[in-house]
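User: Some background: our group keeps a shared notebook of sequences we're curious about, and every so often someone picks one and asks for a predicted structure to add to the entry. Today it's my turn. The entry only has the sequence so far, pasted here. Could you supply the structure so I can complete it?
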Amino acid sequence: MVYLDFAQIKTLPQLFHKACFLYTSKRAYTYRPMFRRFSWTYGEMGKHAAAFAQILKEEGIQKGDRVILIGFNSPFWVAAFFAIQLRGAVAVPLSPESNQEFIQKIIEQTKAKMMLKSSLVQTERIGMQTLAIENIPKPQGNTFLSLDNPEVDQDDIAEIVYTSGTTGDPKGVMLTHQNLLSNLKASREAISIHSNMRLISILPLFHMFEQMGGMFVPLSAGAQVSYAASLNPNHLKWIFQDDRINRMLAVPEFLRLLFLRIKARAKEQGKLKELHLLLGIARMIPFLSVRRIIFKHIHQSIGWEMHTIVCGGAPLEKEVGEFWEALGIYILQGYGLTETAPALTTNRYHEREGGSVGKPIEGVSLKIAPDGEILAKGPNVFGGYWDNKEKTNEVFTEGWLKTGDIGFFDHKGYLHVKGRKKFMIVLSSGEKVYGEDVESELNGEEGVLDSAVVGLKKAQTEEVHAVLLLKKDNRTDPKEIVARVNKRLLPYQRIQGFSIWPHEDFPRTPTRKLKKHEILAQISWNQEEVSLVDGMPPHLTKLESIIAQVLQIPLTEVADSKKFLADFQMDSLERIELVARIENELGISVDESEITQHTTIKDLKALVSRKNHKTIRHPFNPIPYAPSVVLARSLLQPLLLYPTLFLFAPMQAKGLERLTNLTHPVLFFSNHLSTADVPVIFGALPWKLRSKFAVAAGSDVLYEGKSLQIRFSKTLLEFLVPIFPFTRRIGQAKSSLEYTGRLIDRGFSILLFPEGQTSKTGEFQPLRQGAGILAIELEVPIVPLKVEGTQYIIPPGPEDAPPRFYWPKRHPVRVTFGEPFTIERTMGYRAATRFVEEKMRGV
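Assistant: Of course. Here's the predicted structure to add to the notebook entry:
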């Protein structure tokens, strides 16, 4: 394998150019925005970023100009970031959750000239040029090779990084090309990196931990990155299995929640003792590969190949780290800051110390100040905050960066981080309490989901105050929990007071760190509750934010829980999008049929808060699409299909010349007259298109019945056609669309009848709204077609009736194929549905 020569790389544009050339044909990125998987090679990424850079040039972006970048993780975000670098401009990545006031403040502070944003991010009018990163035209020809860009120096600023949700006077961390590349080189040498690495990206790219580990490092090695559109377990499982993920970046909170979920599931199944026994046995086995065999039921769900989790962003509890290592997965915990681009230390594969954050990486010098604060120096340390000399001077002492963290080195040279200096609790006795130590004990209690230990002001001192986030099923008195924990603590560490957190979760940063300043803002001695920062009302929830974005209405309107969804003119398309967003962002599966025009905001909250959501989902069945089955089907179809068509349906096929240049996958939209439509269309198709072809079948007819006749018909048709379940009820639309997307990913063309039912009169019927969603989200050529005469061979029967034997009558038929077309994402679902219907009517 050929690797990049870092001696010749001084800037990010050079890194990007060389990587895209060296690894041009390797798969770089996969992405599942909704219903299917899209992949880019490194060569495609290079061309796309260069084409994007050309647009920035035409818009007047010059070297040194600041460009705001707001979006969710995707290849489009990566292309936009490097397009900015290719222009010699300065990227200013912000969280897509940033409020309007914060965005405007950053624009004014940096004097930004343009904003690049995801089309899913809603922003009000900001008075500057804005481009949607997903809507940039696809590059044509060899754009990447011919683009002319400004010269960039290693000391030029590459990006200005702000902490998401910063209030008051936000600080922009200026990182140069040298800062980033020195950290990249040191990180690669500390942790073995190779081109077979397949990484899942779940942390936000505007955060330096993910940016370095999930973008720069894979790029330098020609590795593959899969971007997760949500943290929904089903979505993640799909990515782990299909993309054979073997690496992941994670924050401690994510690993802890998974750890608790696995323990809770074992307890529900009565296997908690067995789990602890297996963990004990596994820890005595030095070989991680053998440990993976012991816990094969867990590894099976994540695709068998998970090898390493790189953990950072906050201290990892020792118990959690040992749990994952016992499963047979390497845990490499590191430490760093945005100001250090970001890594300072890391554990290595053969140098790991549980509970520590490892040893310094190459080029980094660390020392402990007399007050215990960690000080850092190195080529990765930033030069200062944007336009803020006062704050810059405050964080440096004699050339050393004050990290703001308290820590110590053990006798082996491993760094241990105790916590943030500003959240260290100083008692009247002079003793210092680190909240993280007490939180570790509290979080081990059965009824505690999470905790925050803060110093609560009282008279002239602080008291150790615990804020408890309890599990919903907790039945233990919180006083008992605190009493048990106090027995295990040193006298000066003991909790003196506690509060119960009233919300579903603590306020957190994008890397799941506790925002203790916000927690303190809401907890006072007399338990009065104050509003959250950033001007957000205390009752605002993520669900309300999703509703506002889907229905495109102000948040203030959504806050009225008595309002009906009908008041916002919600239609069936928005209902599907709402359900998809709830599942993707909240991890909760909701049946669309339970959301009607008479559902209020309050009703929807209650629906989402239920513990069990029963949604009929047909698991993906890969057997009908296996190569051996496809081969057998292609041999049998001519023997069975053509004689039958010759006897009962003498055919005339028109427009076949329009299919000449088409290859799989293709989406065929047909009118629907009879159950005879499917074999007739099959007979009209050229063999190259018929060889990998699947047909959407009514799930209520063939997949939800229990009779022997229905099961036999389904099995036979899955083999001969094949068919797959597609609902005709709005309640299961999302599941059906996902199934369709997985078939498209496997290269199968799809036949759908978007009218949703057979026509009783033979006349064309209005299309269901799902046609527009499929047309946009599947991103494949669409062929409209028209079938005539099949209703005379087998007349249409009741829509919900199971298949029945009907002796067909002979009648001539005609199949007409229209001109293939594609639809741009900018059209929108409703307009796309109307456009498809016009094309079908015009055949």
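Suggested note for the entry: The chain is about 35% helix and 20% strand. The chain has a mean pLDDT of 85.
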